[in-house]
Design a protein that fits this description.
The protein is an alpha/beta fold. Helices cover about 35% and strands about 25% of the residues. The protein contains 10 helices and 15 strands. Helix 3 packs across helix 4. The longest helix is centred in the first third of the chain and has 15 residues. It is elongated and about 60 Å long. The N terminus is likely disordered.
Length: about 280
């Protein structure tokens, strides 16, 4: 769709009445993706709504992380290169990560080979695996994942540690040797997370070497499962991993239907997870 076409698509409705809020906000998201910004006046004129309604729409899009409010309108969230340490990330959104880990554990079967990346979300899954009696082979480049599995009295599987250059910030092995080591293995499942998801559905990481490792993991897994909460939609990494269409399944937590558009290309399975799941 051209830029002109997408802007025309949101004008009014066949009956002449303003479109419903959900439909209107979805059209506003399309404008943001095409042009990077939208003004309150533009929303008023294109959708036949009041200034108060236009501001409410933009405020709701900011609340869910799709837009960032500016004076007189809104823009797409800025790209962020900042990367926190593994220890810092471990304590952020702990309930969401625990719920995603529980849902991910339910996808596992005995005697599977599983790859776990170095994300803090996947570490929560490693703790679930460590407390289970599943007989698995776990391949990982994460030192904390290796530690939690090797220290478990109930884990009944094997651990394949991926070596390479150690990143102290993330306590993970990366670099050419790590990529080559990953390429020497095949897995039934990969569980991983990312720094952020762009509005166009590109999965990103803050570090180039981490992005390369995750890309290699996706290639070597028969099924790749992304674990994300709603904060990933407002965060951006500078390094592209793959497009969402190149993975198999997404487990999401805390997202509204309007927010799922970047994660819903044809053929991708999306499962929404609640805290109680």
């Amino acid at each position: 769709m051209t830029a002109t076409g997408s802007r025309d698509a949101g004008r009014g409705s066949p009956s002449g009445r303003p479109p419903l809020a959900e439909t209107r906000r979805a059209a506003i998201v399309a404008l943001l993706r095409d042009h990077g910004s939208v003004s309150v006046t533009e929303v008023e004129e294109r959708f036949g709504v009041s200034s108060m309604t236009a501001r409410r729409d933009l405020g709701e899009l900011e609340r869910v992380g799709i837009a960032r409010r500016t004076h007189g309108g809104a823009v797409l969230p800025a790209f962020a290169a900042r990367e926190d340490s593994f220890t810092q990330r471990l304590a952020v959104d702990a309930e969401a990560k625990a719920a995603l880990a529980t849902a991910a554990l339910s996808l596992l079967s005995p005697r599977q080979t599983v790859i776990l990346d170095s994300s803090s979300t996947t570490y929560y899954l490693a703790r679930r695996i460590a407390g289970s009696e599943l007989e698995l082979t776990v391949i990982t480049n994460s030192v904390p994942v290796m530690e939690v599995l090797s220290g478990s009295h109930t884990f009944a599987g094997a651990i394949v540690g991926i070596g390479g250059t150690l990143r102290q910030l993330t306590r993970s092995f990366v670099g050419p040797y790590a990529v080559r080591a990953i390429s020497g293995h095949y897995a039934d499942l990969l569980f991983f997370s990312v720094k952020g998801v762009t509005p166009g559905g590109m999965l990103t990481d803050a570090d180039m070497l981490e992005a390369e490792v995750k890309r290699a993991m996706i290639v070597q897994a028969a099924r790749s499962v992304l674990l994300v909460d709603r904060t990933k939609l407002s965060a951006r990494g500078q390094n592209a991993i793959v497009a969402a269409r190149d993975i198999s399944t997404v487990l999401t937590h805390g997202m509204q239907p309007l927010e799922l558009a970047p994660l819903q290309p044809p053929g991708l399975t999306v499962q929404m997870v609640d805290l109680g799941d």
